[in-house]
Amino acid sequence: MHFKGFTLPELVITLLLVLLIGIFFTPPFYDAMRNTQLNACSEQLATHLRYARRIAMAKGLSEEVVFVVNNPGQHSYRVQESVSTIRERDPLDESKELYVILRESTGGPALIRTGCTGILFDAVNLPGGSISSVIFDSNGVPDLTALGTVRLTAQNGNTRTVYVTQGTGAIMVEVPSP
Q1: What does R_g of the chain's alpha carbons equal in angstroms?
Q2: CB atoms within 10 A of CB 161
Q3: pLDDT at 100
Q4: Which residues lie below 8 Å from residue 165, measured CB to CB, with a gap of 6+?
Q5: Element of type H or E holding 121
Q6: What is the Cα–Cα distance from 45 to 47, expressed in whole angstroms?
Q7: pLDDT value, residue 15
Q8: Which residues on adjacent β-strands are paired with residue 142?
Q9: Which of 13, 70, 71, 112 could in theory staple to 79 by disulfide, Cβ–Cβ 3.0 to 4.6 A?
């Protein structure tokens, strides 16, 4: 006697086992994917903050990272030239500076414009309101009066925090505990 194929009970049991495996292992897989995306997005943000700082020092101009957090579910940020300094000379004595004027950017295109899908930015301790920013001056020093923090939150509720040190402009990413 030769059997070709499977019986119906064998197929049903196999399908039930595959279904149970899928039910138990799919949620942890999606959480791991979201955590990986959150880690990548926080590292990308830190890299862009460092980039803005270096560009400010290299150009001798201020660079700004602007966070737009007022659109629900569509948070983003951009790196752009911020302000330039104009030094006026005293007309009576050319060797003396009379005052310094900060002039807004020429409105050129943003160097970097980005957001991470499914990641929300909560800009904390940064000037602004619904639009917050950090400006690095030509020495790479941010315009912060306290430790600047930007919290990133994934859809699963996990968070990462990127810190900008007020005096030095050092940028650090919070390392999650295991």
Answers
A1: 26
A2: 16
A3: 37
A4: 142, 147, 148, 171, 172
A5: strand 120-124
A6: 5
A7: 92
A8: 136
A9: 112
**φ, ψ for residue 117 (rounded to 5)?**
-60, 125
| Structure-token match 């040190």, residue found | 165
Using the 8-state DSSP alphabet, how is residue 110 labeled?
A: P
Q: What is the maximum alpha-carbon separation in the chain?
A: 114
Distance between CA atoms of residues 70 and 51, nearest Å: 24
pLDDT attached to residue 83: 54
Residue 39 tokens read as 């880690």
Query: C-alpha angle 127/131/136, rounded to 5°?
Result: 50
The predicted structure's pLDDT at residue 103: 36
Say which DSSP state 152 is in. E
Mean pLDDT split into 10-residue runs, the chain, 178 residues: 80 90 77 86 90 89 79 71 50 45 45 72 66 83 84 86 89 80
Whole-number pLDDT of residue 130: 53
Token pair of 117, please?
A: 């899908």
Tokens representing 178 are: 């295991």
